[in-house]
Structure formats: C-alpha cells, structure tokens
Amino acid sequence: MSEQSTYTVTGMTCGHCEASVREEIGEIAGVQSVEASHETGRVVVTSDGPLDPAAVAAAVEEAGYALA
Ligand SMILES: [Cu+2]
Fold this sequence. Notes:
Number of helices: 2
Bound molecules: copper (II) ion
Number of domains: 1
CATH topology: Alpha-Beta Plaits
Largest sheet: 4 strands, antiparallel
Order of helices and strands: EHEEHE
Radius of gyration: 11 Å
Distance between the termini: 27 Å
Shape: globular
Structural class: alpha+beta
Strand content: 25-35%
Strand order of the largest sheet: 2-3-1-4
C-alpha cells in the first residue's frame, strides 16, 4: 500500500529547484517517488507509509526552500 501526500513549497523557480527538492525528499526512508512543480509549488510524495512531517520540512529546508 502506498500513500500520497501533497505539500506546498515556496521558493522554487525552475526545473533545477524541482530536482533539488525531489532529491532531498527522496532520501527520506519510505519515500517511493516525488513529483515537484515550480509553477504551482506543489510537491506530491508517494511513500510506503505515513511520513514524519518534520522530516519532510527538514528535507525541503535542506534543499533551500520552505514548506508553505
Ligand atoms: Cu531553480
């Protein structure tokens, strides 16, 4: 069973930003895939179970952005 969560990330302006966010969130245990759009700021994370919101926030910050 996989679970999907949607986040809003501020500060992404191009495909490189999207890739940074995808890479950092992708390192969280249990994450299967990450979609990110700089146009909408939406980040959709598919994982094999519930994610720790603090871990997601930390990963986004590590990439240089912030959760809205
Ligand atoms: Cu960018």
